[in-house]
Amino acid sequence: MLIHSASQLLTLAGGPQRGPDLGRLEIIPDGAALIRDEKILVVGPSRELLAAYPDEPLLDAGGKVVMPGFVDPHTHAIFAGDRSAEFEQRLQGKTYLEILAEGGGILSTVRATRTASLEKIVNETRSRLWSMFSYGTTTAEVKTGYGLRTATELRMLQALLALDKEGPLEIAPTFMGAHAIAPEYRGRPQEYTDFVCSTMLPVLRQWWPHNAPYHEMPFVDVFCETGAFSLDQSRSIFSAAKDMGFPLKIHADEFDNLGGARLAVEFGAVSADHLVKTSPGDISILANSDTVAVALPCTPFGLAEAHYTPAQAILQAGGLLAIATDLNPGTAWCESMQFALALACRYMRLTPAQAIAAATINSAAAIQRADRVGSLEPGKQADLLILSVPDYRHLGYRFGINLVQTVIKRGRIYPN
Ligand code: NIG
Ligand code: FE
After folding, report:
1. What's this model's pTM, rounded to 2 decimal places?
2. Per-residue pLDDT tens over the stretch 89-133
3. What are the domain boundaries of the chain?
4. Domain at 2-68+374-415, CATH class
5. Which end of the chain has fewer CB within 10 Å, C or N?
6. CB of 249 closer than 6 A to ligand 1?
7. How far is ligand 1, taken at its centre, from the CA of residue 106, in Å?
8. By CB neighbour count within 10 A (0-12 exposed, 13-18 middle, 19+ buried), where does 357 fall?
9. Any idea which fold 70-365 has?
10. What is the rounded CA–CA span in Å between residue 83 and residue 329?
């Protein structure tokens, strides 16, 4: 199939974009992309490709932007129920961490997830994944973390593997048994931490090759935060997970700076996420490492908080910046990467070009998939979007509607 006549074909070629380099879209005007066997064979000017491949079935993208599918590198998309009542409480003045300390927040979704049937969880998650897909996300990381019991956490992973196989949205799974202190361990965070390290992770290590033989290892993520896991507890979990060969991620500096970003660098974590309260010193350590800084602008927006990830400081220090939705029922129930980009442009002062690179090639790097997705280059997966607009700057500029007209996943066309 030959997609042709795009007003702008954004290739994002050349790998992840660090620091001031962020925003290189590598645009081909009047561009075309040839797709064969689920992959991109060649990209170039329409005139050249139409002449070179005259017998190819055509898809006319006349006057429209063609770009790589979004990669959403941080979501909690698998859960049951909702927290609309807590949203109302927060509007009336309660804080997120107060609600968590009272046994609500993440723990209320844990109760809903533990008691729901697997069928209900899978059905609700599937519809969220389709919504993400229609808004242009072709690959997403999804975390467990609403089970907090070995069996429930594994059931969530099993469900994610099944949903990934079903497609079309491709899933990179993350184990997040350390999302909150399990209710059975209330007031005993160290004991729960020990349980994660000495039981959950070793069981997962055994379980994974039997249940996901063709998958790379899942990420292991920790919520390093007041009221969740301390720096020392996060360190123990990282240390155990790393010894078992799991790639690492961390929720760091969302509400308080406990030193999670530095810990991520020390352990060579793939990404450190949130980074709202990160100190200038920690930004410089992070920016000088290969750990990707993942900003989640829907979260401060969802919590109606004033501070966002200091993206400019991260870029000036030479960091690798990515953007994600953080889709979850508590702080940010948002399936749309387009909306995350609109917020990133306004509150993190990214240009649309920077936001697009942060949401494609760099977010692919944040889940170790930059070799397969995140750009339109020969040999990469044919995951593309056709937008209903003539100029890429409509992304970020416009919000609250869907600018994606067609999603193409591994060469298959899904019109919106
Ligand atoms: O990334 N902060 C921890 N985890 C999520 C929120 C999860 C929830 O509230 O259910 C986050 O914001
Ligand atoms: Fe999160």
Report:
1. 0.98
2. 999 999 999 999 999 999 999 999 999 999 999 999 999 999 999
3. 2-68+374-415, 70-365
4. mainly beta
5. C
6. no
7. 7
8. buried
9. TIM Barrel (3.20.20)
10. 6
